[in-house]
Design goal:
Helix content of chain B: 55-70%
CATH architecture of the largest domain in chain A: 3-Layer(aba) Sandwich
Structural class of chain A: alpha+beta
Largest interface: A-B, 22 and 16 residues
Strand order of the largest sheet of chain B: 1-2
Order of helices and strands of chain A: EEEHEEEHHHEHEHEEHHEEEEEEEEEEH
Largest sheet of chain B: 2 strands, antiparallel
Mean pLDDT of chain A: 89
Number of strands of chain A: 20
Number of strands of chain B: 2
Strand content of chain B: under 5%
Structural class of chain B: mainly alpha
Helix content of chain A: 10-25%
Low-confidence stretches of chain A: 366-370
Oligomer: heterodimer
CATH topology of the largest domain in chain B: MetI-like fold
Shape of chain B: globular
Bound molecules: adenosine-5'-diphosphate, magnesium ion
Distance between the termini of chain A: 19 Å
Chain lengths: ~375, ~325
């Protein structure tokens, strides 16, 4: 297994820049997810790493070796496509054996390795079936089989679950992560689905318009979004982004939101910007009878143990995740208070998060999974 | 029975009967000329021009004999002086005061047709597949203009350029050569092949080759082992279209070939001239000429059907 290091990777198609100076590292054995909306350059990045597309500039290193200009076939990387790309004119066994057939691997060894891969993926009973009759999940398993049978340096997966229905997708998420833990393979996984990313990743890179906006653990991305885009993209419902007013002095612990004042984690450097945005996760919103940001209940969405309550306030719509035990009446006037310690603050003009006691806590502690 | 306008209803016996008789009537109309050709091939020359036409007649091999042989007229005395006739054709010839002088040119002309049709089909499809793959997969500069240019070669009837080609071929020494005819038919067919095959190859997801290339295959290997098998339907359909054109082509064949490389289509009408209106021989030549293209089409018909209804049937 290998480390993938990408340095200042850049790709333009004519005038259009698909990937802008991307840099990140996938550590050996890590499950790395690249997350972003459709068209943000995820596939292009993956194709450059695989060798299917040449970068306009930048470096790609595999275990330290520069492979930027190397042919796809010489990189020893496996790729799982969204469309599975199984060869319809071959059966399952031949499909899985295909990468080995060309490498001069002896017949008996091919047989054992194919059967081992099939066992790992629990598709041993399908080996002699034609791929055209298989279900979506089984096709995806065959595609994975073709990838793992080679024992490659790394796996690249481009929305491999995108073509499956929701139920199957959830099962495959667990299966994929378990497979990764068993093989310990360096995996670079691309998706536009934040739930997939959150559920599987060791590290996530959130990408937008060809730029990596944040590169961190799922917990950090959720808890401490680095930009407004990340704050808005991650979470369901997403973070409430409430306009508030600067400037803030260094050490400030409150900010003016509409007619009320909200507590925030201590701002480190302060800011001169006048337009700020307060980022509040729905679970950080509390209802209070007196004071707070005044508004009224607009609607409630029952989710079992919790409910998502939509509130209309002078500062815009705010969504709160409350216990279902709390009763809310549509149209009733309420006050909103925010639990201050984990709130985020953004400069509206640059879109970047301000450094606060909360964000710095992460920098000093370091925040790693496992 | 309640059926909405969109539901598919099992056809009733009566609609089936009507549809069936329509199909049969149409088949009869289209097949009648073919049947007439086969019947004429088995008639004697007098039977073939009798009026009213004969439906019932004694079959004769005279047409086939006349097709495959040349005969010379002799005096009755001379024929009587010959030893007994050795074969059916000799017997038939003597009955008409003739003797078989030798084989006709039909077999070599037919063979020319085979060589030229298969040869040009092979080259048109081979070149077309590679060009189509290139246009489909690579960023070819001016691709759209080039494709339009390729298509534009078919916008006028090929015979419109007959004179220039005739002069060119004469200068280059390509007149009446098999190579020249293969070259010409390939040139005419390759544009059709590129366009048809590009459509087919566009439909094959490029991920298939990319997967193979990541798995250690070169592009050429991926093309051969992954693209070609999946384009088989398109290649077969294209081959049939090219084949039919090359096999039936008449105008250029008349213009550019006269001996060495003459194909069957310009040869068959010539037979008429040899000894009166020999319709049975012409019909026999036509009947035999139809066989290979029918066999070829029947062999590939599954592909042809899928090719025509492409997209609707696939996947
Ligand atoms: N070969 C190409 N030529 C021109 N534009 C392309 C090409 N490939 C991708 N793009 C553009 O680059 C952008 C990023 O594409 P892609 O990497 O596929 O996005 P994602 O996988 O994140 O959805 C898209 O806007 C797409 O239109
Ligand atoms: Mg994509």
């Amino acid at each position: 297994m290998a480390e993938i290091r990408v340095e200042n990777l850049h790709k333009s198609f004519g005038e259009f820049v698909a990937v802008k100076n991307s840099s990140f590292t996938v550590a050996s054995g890590e499950f790395f997810v690249m997350l972003g909306p459709s068209g943000c350059g995820k596939t292009t990045t993956l194709r450059m790493i695989a060798g299917l597309e040449l970068p306009s500039s930048g470096l790609i290193r595999l275990d330290g070796d520069d492979v930027t200009q190397l042919r796809a076939s010489a990189r020893d990387i496996a790729f799982v496509f969204q469309l599975f790309a199984l060869y319809p004119h071959m059966n399952v066994r031949k499909n899985i054996a295909y990468p080995l057939a060309n490498q001069g691997v002896a017949k008996p060894e091919i047989k054992t390795r194919v059967e081992e891969a099939a066992r790992t993926l629990r598709i041993g009973h399908l080996l002699d079936r034609s791929v055209s009759g298989l279900s979506g999940g089984d096709r995806q398993r065959v595609a994975l089989g073709r990838a793992i049978v080679r024992n490659p340096k790394a796996f690249l997966m481009d929305e491999p679950l995108g073509a499956l229905d929701t139920e199957l997708r959830e099962a495959m998420i667990a299966e994929l992560r378990a497979l990764h833990d068993r093989l310990g393979a360096t995996t670079l996984y691309v998706t536009h689905d934040q739930l997939e990313a959150m559920a599987m990743a060791d590290k996530i890179a959130v990408m937008n318009k060809g730029v990596i906006e944040q590169f961190d653990t799922p917990q950090q991305i959720y808890g401490r979004p680095a930009t407004l885009f990340v704050a808005d993209f991650i979470g369901s419902p997403p973070m409430n982004l409430i306009p508030c007013r600067g400037p803030l002095a260094p050490g400030a612990t409150t900010v003016q939101v509409g007619e009320t004042v909200a507590g925030i984690p201590a701002v480190l450097d302060g800011t001169t910007a006048t337009d700020l945005v307060l980022g509040v996760r729905p679970e950080q919103v509390q209802l209070v009878d007196e004071g707070g940001l005044r508004g009224e209940v607009f609607g409630a969405e029952y989710l079992g143990t919790t409910q998502i309550v939509t509130l209309r306030t002078g500062a815009g719509t705010v969504r709160a995740r409350l216990s279902s035990a709390e009763t809310v009446t549509v149209g009733a006037p309420v006050g909103l208070a925010f639990r201050p310690e984990k709130l985020s603050l953004f400069d509206k003009a640059t879109g970047r998060a301000l450094r606060t006691a909360w964000t710095v806590a992460a920098e000093t502690k370091g925040h790693r999974r496992g | 029975m309640s059926t909405s306008a969109h539901s598919v209803v099992e056809p009733t016996g009566r609609t089936k009967a009507i549809a069936g008789s329509l199909v049969i009537a149409y088949a009869l109309i289209t097949m009648l000329p073919l049947v007439w050709i086969f019947l004429t091939a088995l008639k004697t020359p007098p039977d073939s021009i009798s009026y009213p036409p004969k439906i019932v007649f004694t079959p004769s091999l005279e047409g086939f004999c006349n097709l495959f042989t040349t005969r010379s007229r002799q005096t009755e005395d001379y024929i009587k002086s010959l030893p007994p006739a050795s074969g059916t054709c000799e017997q038939i010839a003597r009955a008409r005061n003739m003797v078989v002088a030798g084989p006709s040119n039909y077999v070599p002309r037919f063979w020319n047709s085979v060589v030229i049709a298969f040869g040009s089909t092979f080259f048109a499809v081979a070149l077309g597949t590679m060009a189509a793959y290139g246009f489909s997969r690579f960023r070819v500069p001016l691709a759209d203009d080039l494709l339009f240019f390729i298509l534009s070669t078919r916008m006028m009837p090929p015979i419109a350029v007959a004179i220039p080609i005739y002069l060119m071929y004469r200068e280059l020494g390509l007149s009446d050569t098999k190579f020249g005819m293969i070259l010409l038919y390939t040139a005419v067919n390759v544009s059709l092949a590129v366009w048809l095959l590009k459509g087919f190859i566009d439909e094959i997801p490029r991920e298939y080759e990319e997967a193979a290339m990541i798995d250690g295959y070169t592009r050429l290997q991926a093309f051969r082992k992954v693209v070609l098998p999946q384009a088989a339907t398109g290649i077969a359909a294209t081959a049939i279209f090219c084949m039919i054109f090359a096999w039936n082509e008449y105008a250029f064949a008349v213009l550019l070939t006269s001996g060495e490389a003459q194909t069957a289509p310009p040869f068959i009408p010539i037979i008429i001239g040899e000894g009166g209106q020999d319709w049975p021989a012409v019909a026999a030549g036509t009947a035999i000429f139809l066989v290979p293209i029918v066999v070829f089409t029947v062999l590939l018909r599954k592909h042809l059907l899928r090719g025509i209804t492409f997209g609707a049937v696939r996947k």
